[in-house]
Write a structure and sequence with these properties.
13 helices; single chain; 5 strands; five-stranded parallel β-sheet
């Protein structure tokens, strides 16, 4: 069997992004299947929970540093609200881990890489918010800019997963592809395992044994089809979102006309009764609208995830199969602009609806409750489309 190149990833983060850490660790099998296998790479995660062991040092972080011993190729740093606990050498253990990665990168930029991510979601409990900790995060973020570090922002763990699939796919293609492994000149402490060179007959025999020829070409065709199909599904879902929003807007316009007619009624008791009936009917319409939108959110999210997964592997596999490089590029260029424009149109439409909707007065308690449900549902789908636009911007680069 051909030697597999090991690519080690170190994840540095404070305690408030535990969910993101667990998601990334769980992503290892997907990374190996989607990105690693076509490139003869196996991803391994290095982290203090698994790789450090009890010992004695200047402090706990020093013990962790000595246990791991810079044995990684990619450093992924994640921050949110907390910066972490101060050590004897840095403002937090995560910052110290970053500095180790920074030093390693500057020693050999071709053999290591740094990827920084910042979560932008609001805290679930404002009473747990530590302003001083968050101020350190902001200062660190600013310092990265002065160092020339391009970081990325995300809101949900799922967003981070999608971004990592895209970014790691591009990184492997540009920096850690199989051909580039051969050309890396590294010291014995580095973790990338360079393949042992074999003659052309041995390589051909192994390739036939592993059935790489058939698997790769069939997989490429399937991936192209899967990517295009999932991209074509998104406009259909966005059209349904548009129909739902247009429907509720139309009902509100009709109810507004009815309300204006009631202004001519001179009997105040009758007028209030009729207004109450219209308001409660509007509440029912809003509840139905919120249910419809909430049903579309997971469908849109799942389809977007299919786009990311299939596209990530497509760009990697196409890079390894020269005959498909132009084909993949052409297919994506045919679909991408229309999809992106479609997302922008829906974003503009939802934004307009939110602005108009916020000005509607609350006439009854039923209407007030229904209005809030509708606002939350609309904002949820709005954020899904914002995230989709940001992801599509990544795909188009």
């Amino acid at each position: 069997m051909e030697n597999t190149n090991i690519l080690k990833i170190f994840l540095g983060s404070p305690s408030d992004v535990k969910t993101e850490r667990e998601l990334i660790f769980a992503l290892q099998n997907d990374l190996n299947h989607l990105i690693g296998k076509p490139n003869n790479i196996r991803f391994e995660f290095v982290n203090w929970e698994k790789d450090a062991y009890p010992g004695i040092g200047i402090d706990a972080q020093d013990v962790i540093n000595n246990s791991i011993n810079e044995d990684f190729d990619i450093f992924i740093g994640i921050f949110w609200l907390k910066f972490g606990t101060k050590t004897n050498r840095a403002e937090s253990g995560t910052e110290e881990e970053f500095e180790i990665a920074w030093k390693r990168y500057n020693q050999n930029p071709n053999a290591s890489h740094i990827m920084m991510y910042f979560k932008t979601a609001s805290p679930s409990n404002i009473y747990d918010f530590d302003f001083k900790q968050f101020e350190k995060v902001k200062n660190f973020k600013t310092s990265l800019q002065t160092r020339g570090v391009l970081y990325w922002e995300f809101e949900t763990p799922e967003d981070l997963k999608n971004l990592l699939l895209i970014h790691l796919s591009s990184l492997i293609k540009d920096k850690f592809s199989e051909d580039k492994f051969k050309n890396l000149s590294k010291n014995t402490n580095d973790s990338l395992s360079i393949k042992v060179e074999k003659d052309k007959y041995e390589l051909l025999a192994e390739k036939i044994d592993n059935e790489n020829d058939i698997t790769e070409y069939d997989g490429m065709l399937e991936l192209l089809e899967m990517t295009i199909d999932s991209m074509n599904e998104l406009p259909m879902i966005t059209e349904r979102v548009t129909l739902v929003i247009n429907s509720i807007a139309s009902k509100f316009a009709e109810k507004t006309k009815q309300t204006n007619i009631l202004k001519n009624i001179k009997d105040d008791r009758l007028k209030i009764k009729k207004l109450n009936e219209i308001s409660n009917k509007m509440a029912l319409d809003l509840n139905n609208y919120a249910e419809d939108i909430n049903e579309l959110i997971p469908e849109f999210s799942e389809t977007m995830n299919k786009v990311i997964e299939s596209y990530s592997k497509t760009i990697i596999t196409a890079n390894n199969i020269t005959v498909f490089q132009d084909e993949a590029k052409t297919q994506m260029e045919d679909v991408y602009p229309t999809l992106k424009a479609n997302i922008e149109i829906v974003l503009e439409q939802i934004a307009g609806f939110i602005n108009e909707f916020s000005n509607i007065p609350v006439l009854t308690s039923k209407f007030g409750t229904a209005k809030r449900k509708a606002e939350l549902a609309t904002n949820a789908i709005f954020k899904e489309f914002i995230n989709a636009r940001n992801i599509l911007n990544q795909l188009g680069q």
